[in-house]
Specification:
One of its GO terms (molecular function) is metal ion binding. It holds the Pfam family Metallophos. This is UDP-2,3-diacylglucosamine diphosphatase. The protein is α/β, with parallel strands linked by helices. The protein has a domain of about 210 residues: Purple Acid Phosphatase, chain A, domain 2. It contains six helices and twelve strands. A hairpin with a 2-residue loop joins strand 4 and strand 5. The structure holds manganese (II) ion. The site of manganese (II) ion has 8 residues, from loops.
């Protein structure tokens, strides 16, 4: 592994600067024993960094697993895209390590350039190919990204691009294709119909992936498995094991958490934010009549 071998992706390009949006001070954070997040795809426009920053500012944990595809090196090779919000995500993660959160980073296929550092630690972040997590209730969970099963799932390889907003592109293309067709006097032809067929295949793909991963976990004698990769959060009992997927921060914006008693839960962060806003609005509404009442009394 010489330095030339890493020339296509230079880690020296990364200067983790002070955050553009500092962490809020003294806000109450929900505490969990463990948090798993993956498929953040930093370095792409699809990454929902703002929502992830909100998540990081409202939760804390003893352990944090970064389950792959954190930085999208594939895309960064083509075009360097690194807005301040993406820097803020990395800064917050490194800050947590400093505060004492035990962080394990398991690179995925989009950030496979970090796999060469397996076994090493940087800034308190341990880089591993896979990990065994022991839950508070004594279960052993195999933690891995999930692209290890791509070979098995080769027939559905196109889904590896699920984060690329291929569907949106397809829909735009649909408009153009049909504008041209109409000018040529040809009838409407639905590209979206083709895409929908693919989506139906996607549902089958997800089910198959989950079963393949669970099967492998069972063969390795663990009680469960935590992975990412397919951008579909899930908690499901499959055969003799518990299958967990922490989802992604491109579309779903989800995290998997372990409570202090070992109970596992998927957090849907967009919904959490909506709930918080609604609660704040209700509180403000209650405050207004009370103030008005005070005025009347005076
Ligand atoms: Mn992946």
């Amino acid at each position: 592994m010489d330095s030339a071998g890493t020339a296509d992706f230079d880690l020296a390009d990364f200067h983790i600067a002070a955050p553009a949006h500092p962490e809020p001070e003294g806000n109450e954070r929900r505490r969990f024993r463990t948090i798993w997040i993956s498929d953040i795809h930093l370095g792409t426009r699809g990454c929902n960094a703002r929502l992830l920053i909100d998540f990081l500012d409202h939760v804390d944990s003893d352990m944090l697993y970064l389950v792959g595809d954190i930085i999208d090196g594939w895309r960064m090779k083509k075009r360097f895209y690194w807005p301040a919000s993406h820097n803020d995500v990395v800064w917050r993660i490194l800050k947590r390590a400093k505060r004492g959160t035990r962080i394990t980073y398991i690179p995925g296929n989009h950030d496979e350039m970090f796999r060469q550092f397996t076994g090493l630690s940087f800034g308190g972040v341990a880089i591993r190919r896979k990990a065994i997590h022991e839950t508070a209730d004594g279960r052993k969970l195999l933690v891995l990204h999930g692209d290890e099963f791509d070979a098995v799932m080769l027939a559905h390889r196109w889904l590896a691009y699920v984060g690329d907003a291929a569907y949106v592109t397809l829909m735009r293309l649909n408009v153009i294709v049909n504008a041209v067709r109409s000018r040529l006097g040809l009838p409407y032809w639905s590209l979206s119909k083709v895409a929908k067929h693919k989506v139906k295949n996607a549902v089958e793909f997800i089910g198959r992936f989950e079963e393949v991963v669970a099967h492998e976990a069972e063969a390795r004698g663990v009680d469960g498995v935590v992975c990412g990769h397919i951008h579909t959060a899930e908690i499901r009992r499959i055969g003799g094991v518990d299958y967990y997927n922490d989802g992604d921060w491109v579309e779903g914006c989800t995290a998997l958490v372990e409570h202090f008693d070992g109970r596992m839960e998927v957090l849907h962060w967009a919904e959490e934010v909506e709930r918080r806003k609604a609660a704040q609005a209700a509180e403000a509404e209650q405050a207004v009549p009370a103030a008005a009442g005070a005025l009347v009394a005076a």
